[in-house]
Amino acid sequence: MNLFDVYPINPINIVKGAGSLVYDDKGTEYLDLYGGHAVISIGHTHPHYVKRLEDQLHQIGFYSNSIEIPLQKQLADKLGKISGKEDYQLFLCNSGAEANENALKLASFYNGKKKVIAFRKAFHGRTSLAVAVTDNPNIVAPVNETDNVIFLPWNDETSLEHAFAANEISSVIIEGIQGVGGIQVAPVNFLKKIRSLCDEYNAVFIADSVQCGYGRTGKFFSHDFAGIDADIYSMAKGMGNGFPIGGIIISPKIKPAYGMLGTTFGGNHLACAAGLAVLETIEQDNLMENAAVVGGYLIDKLKKFNQVTEVRGRGLMIGIELPAELANVKKELLFKHNIFTGEAKPNVVRLLPALNLTKAHADRFLEAFSKTLTNSLSIA
Ligand SMILES: Cc1ncc(COP(=O)(O)O)c(C=O)c1O
Q1: What is the value of pTM for the model shown?
Q2: Residues with C-beta less than 6 Å from any ligand 1 atom
Q3: pLDDT tens for residues 45-65?
Q4: Which of 10, 98, 141, 150 lies deepest, with the highest CB count within 10 Å?
Q5: Which residue stretches of the chain are H helix?
């Protein structure tokens, strides 16, 4: 049987990892500043993570939500404490798209309305409503098309006010920093405006924190920079350091009822153990602080390269916008310097490393990046 060929892949077989380093089947070492798309939050094979999962597997790996699973409450308590949203309620699922599906659905149950506001260049996932609120017609199948979604320009308060005026808005979904959209930081005043309009019209503010959340920016949720509370935060990627787990945390004003949401796999024992191991490590190893410090260091240094068009981001979520003639930088970093990075169109190098990235590894990247720029310019 063939694999369904939907990914343009690099011809590299990674077989081992430790911290921010990974190794292929030939023993070549790579520096991982991509984290498998912002997923590796506490580093590959972190000893505490490995032990927690191993111990849990020896106990029990899975049982469904038909029984008590105390690990879920432990995860909720820890998440409440670290995020500062102690009065919120946790619903667990398995991926980012699923988290957003549940958030959008719950919002509509809550206020009985149908329309959702999303923004240009947004990415929220590939399943039904999640892809409908994603601004990329190429990945929206005809069956996913719906009149219920209104796309608005980024950071345009006037069009936001107009869209609310008919009082039909159920929810607004926004990434604190657009990831796939090229590392665009949501302006503080724009997030505040969304908050006040949602309050005025009883709409639900959904903070998509799947990529920008979980401590990556130095705060637990990047929307926290605006000093506001969203009604629902969706999360996934960094939550399980590679174990598939997602979730939403829900403001106390939204009351649960049986049947509203549900899942077979969500919140199973092994997933909760992974989630707890991640939060315990973030706390014990001060990883949010490290993300702020090492991320700040990288951003400052990157801004000094005059070939770079713009550096955007916060903490360890960084976008380096390059001019068109430097189209080969990402490939050179990977194949010449053995450094994994992410990308966004048209020519943005995305850095999404583990939150315990060391300054030495940041320097290793900066040195390779500098050589790559010089080399690419001499070729161009
Ligand atoms: C902001 C954001 N939301 C949602 C998703 C979808 O997450 P998943 O691929 O786990 O379904 C992604 C994935 O890249 C994302 O970046």
Answers
A1: 0.98
A2: 95-97, 100, 123-125, 175, 179-180, 208, 210-211, 236
A3: 999 999 999 999 999 999 999
A4: 98
A5: 35-38, 47-59, 70-83, 96-111, 128-132, 157-164, 188-201, 269-284, 287-303, 329-335, 359-379
Q: How far is the CA of 38 from the centre of ligand 1 (A)?
A: 10
Contact 136, 284 (CB under 8 A): no
The model's confidence at residue 375, banded by pLDDT at 50, 70 and 90, is confident
Q: Whose CA is nearest to atom 3 of ligand 1?
A: 124
Centre of ligand 1 from the C-alpha of residue 373, in Å: 30
What is the distance in angstroms between the CA of the first residue and the CA of the last residue of the chain? 43
In this prediction, residue 374 carries a pLDDT of: 86
208: helix, strand or coil: strand
Q: Can you tell me which residue has the tokens 């921010």?
A: 20
Q: Read off the pLDDT of residues 165-183 as tens digits, 9 standing for 90 and up.
A: 999 999 999 999 999 999 9
- CB-count burial class (<10 Å; 0-12, 13-18, 19+) for 259: exposed
Question: Quick one: DSSP state of residue 139?
Answer: G
